[in-house]
Amino acid sequence: MRTLTFGTLLLAAASSCSVSEQVKDKPTGKNVSAEALENEAYTLMQYRLNFVDEAKLGGQDILFVRQASDIASAQQAQLQTALKKGNLPLQLKMRVYARNASPTNVQLKQLDYKILLDGKELTAGTTGLNAQLEASAIETLPIDVTMNVKPAQLAGSTPAAFAAGFTDFTAANRRLTVQIRPMYVGASGRQVPATAFETVQLVTAKKAVTVK
Questions:
Q1: Are 106 and 42 in contact (CB under 8 A)?
Q2: Which of 35-49, 91-105, 161-175, 198-212 has the lowest mean pLDDT?
Q3: How far apart are the C-alpha atoms of 42 and 94, rounded to whole Å?
Q4: Is the model's pTM score more than 0.85?
Q5: 140, 95 contact by CB (below 8 A)
Q6: Residue 152, SS3?
Q7: Are 42 and 186 in contact, with CB atoms under 8 Å apart?
Q8: Of all helices (H) and strands (E), which one includes residue 60?
Q9: Is the pLDDT of residue 137 over 60?
Q10: Strand locations in 89-185, DSSP E?
Q11: Count of CB atoms within 10 A of residue 158's CB?
Q12: Could you give the CA distance from residue 126 to residue 78 in angstroms, rounded to a whole number?
């Protein structure tokens, strides 16, 4: 059910990623250039993060693990053994929804992302390679992660504690966050990167109400 409502949630949102200083002027007049229209489109782009679709640690499903005790003792021992052997794979599947809120088609060269756990970078990558974002349309950009968890990333904790609340996006102190940095390419071939990584909001994020 949660994935069926993402279109409505995105349409109600009004958040967009900041882009470089060259993309700040709103085009006006009948003879506006294609470049100016593209610049405006980039400023109107909206991104939202879906909840985690799949999460496995050492081959064990941790999607609904909210505390260490949710993992049976025997499974905890297996995870600990895998960590000591240096073979504790973490697999994640998520989705970023990209909404082009402008009447101009946008070419996304790539969407760089960073995944942070407890405020520290866990891994990074790129998705949305050469995605065509049509005017007023929403596209799904997958984030698939496969990495080997190292003891240093557990900071002296256990694999079970590492997994606890990992995918809980409803918690007040959400552990997992994703930052993104889109790079666009115009019809003329010019590349327009964002200036910095920004935290992408969840599909459930509501539009802020301005009190006058």
A1: yes
A2: 198-212
A3: 23
A4: no
A5: yes
A6: helix
A7: no
A8: strand 60-61
A9: yes
A10: 89-100, 106-117, 120-127, 131-133, 138-148, 176-185
A11: 15
A12: 31
Confidence of residue 171 (pLDDT cuts 50, 70, 90): confident
Strand partners of residue 42:
none
Q: In whole angstroms, give the CA distance from residue 38 to residue 23.
A: 9
Distance of CA 59 to the CA centre of its chain: 23
Separation CA 22–CA 15 (nearest Å): 19
- Distance between CA atoms of 192 and 186, rounded to whole angstroms? 8
List the single range of 3-12, 94-103, 131-140, 174-183 with lowest mean pLDDT: 3-12
Please count the other Cβ atoms lying within 10 Å of the Cβ belonging to residue 13.
22
In terms of DSSP H, where are the helices of the chain? 6-12, 34-44, 73-84, 151-154, 159-163
Instruction: Report helix, strand or coil for 13.
Output: coil
Terminal alpha carbon distance of the chain? 35
Query: Dihedral, CA atoms, 179, 131, 41, 138, nearest 10 degrees?
Result: -80
Q: Which amino acid is at 189?
A: G
Q: What mean pLDDT is predicted for residues 154-167?
A: 94
Distance CA 11, CA 121 (A): 30
Chain-centroid distance of CA 34 in Å reads 29
d(CA 26, CA 89): 47
Which of the 8 DSSP states describes residue 191?
E
Bridge partners (DSSP) listed for residue 97: 48, 140
Integer Cα distance of 50 and 96 in angstroms: 6
